[in-house]
Amino acid sequence: MFSSTDTNNKRALASSNIRGDRYEVKRHQKYPHALNFYSVPPTEEITIDEFEGFAFDRLQVLKALEGAILRNKSEEDIKDIDKKLSLPLHSDDAAKAYPLEEERRKDHISHFILRLAYSRTVDLRNWFLKYECALFKLRFIRENKEERLAFLNNENIRWKNLSQAERELMREKFTKEESNACSITYDDELFEIDFEKVPDLVAKRAVYIKEGKAYVPTTEQISLVMYEFRQRLAKALELASKSFITLRNERIMPMLDEIIKYDGRTQTTNNYSLIDNPNADNLAEHFPLCMQHLYQNLCEKHHLKHFARIQFNLFLKGIGLTVEEALAFWRKSFSEIDEAKFLKDYAYNIRHNYGLEGKRQDYKPLNCMSIISSYRPNSGEIHGCPFREFSQSNLSAKLVQMGVRDEEHIKEILNLTEGEHYQIACTKYFEITRGLSDKNNDNVIIGTIEHPNEYLNASVSNEKNRMKMNNKDKMVNK
């Protein structure tokens, strides 16, 4: 993808010669279609900012797709997820309204950056393959028939198309075959393909099988296309993994490492809060479960241990509390400790979190991945993510305590935690406790909760929207 005097780097990225803050890339071709099998690496010039920005924007879309699929969102709910999340890709008929060349260039380059970043392990390759397939599928379905056909012809993808006489004979066999769930209309074309290439269609009896061949109607063409896309990308990832071992570029490697660590949220400044006049006690009802748990323990016991204090104090910092407000909050909360002990044992660490002591590093509020993965609680400690750390029985009781009464909702959340989808479980908890149904698409979070402060912001925003709607209804009913 990039050019370089280093032969190994050429294999890894197709090129990688850094000139100043730019990578050298030569475009082989324009982009005649919105759809792309990503067969040819891009080789045009991009900046380092583009390298990072393109990768993070695409990863945000893939993470959002992961969350939506795990939460059983419908195809209708996620059909435009890429357009909503900084990776739009429009058809030719939208050329007057959108910069198609720029969109397709970004889509092309971002895919190859992530392909390289996610090629290093089997788990990463499988994750990338799964959600790239999901993204391609929703885009393919979104295109009209003419554009799909033009794209497939351009990719030289063709299947044996039965003649009209052969189709008539096959329709009769479909009709007579009682065990077959597929029905074929007069206008349906039929494609002949090896049956092992369409196991999903065979499983649901959507094709007629004869002598090792499956006969696929046009209504099921998507399965044929997805087979081609999946096979090609799987092979490409294997090749990329071999090249990754030889990659030795001091400027690219740290960026690829950051891509893997990225939690899927938009890159933001240190201002995590959208809250006016922040006050921890007044905002407690909007806290995510991890912070609710810490806050409740603090109120009951007037103390938190070291890592719990760090987790909660940085969260308060993210809300917008100044260091003076944070010190006042903790002094009030630690009411059973005298002033001298508080100043000696606790005030320093609070000021340290704000970058006012020690090496004066300005610490950011912890995101979900940090809370889940780092500093796992030992016996007697209560920090961390409840969806990961609580037993099934304790989590169930906690959910009931927090207002989740429906047994199906509780079961759904517990199943997600058993599958280690902790952030998806948190997002589901948010939707349930905020009264957001799947049908109310404008309010439901498309992606997954990735940060406690974003949870709080979303909760406050949801309440404001609800109050606006209530006021509007009152005005209408007057």
From TrEMBL:
Pfam families: DNA_primase_lrg, DNA_primase_lrg_N. One of its GO terms (cellular component) is alpha DNA polymerase:primase complex. Its cofactor is [4Fe-4S] cluster. One of its GO terms (molecular function) is 4 iron, 4 sulfur cluster binding. GO terms for biological process: DNA replication initiation; DNA replication, synthesis of primer. Binds 1 [4Fe-4S] cluster. [4Fe-4S] cluster binds at C290, C368, C385, C426. Residues 284-455 form the DNA primase large subunit C-terminal domain. Keywords: 4Fe-4S, DNA replication, DNA-binding, Iron, Iron-sulfur, Metal-binding, Primosome. Belongs to the eukaryotic-type primase large subunit family. DNA primase is the polymerase that synthesizes small RNA primers for the Okazaki fragments made during discontinuous DNA replication. PANTHER family: DNA PRIMASE LARGE SUBUNIT (PTHR10537). This is DNA primase large subunit. It comes from Glomus cerebriforme. The lineage of its organism: Eukaryota, Fungi, Fungi incertae sedis, Mucoromycota, Glomeromycotina.
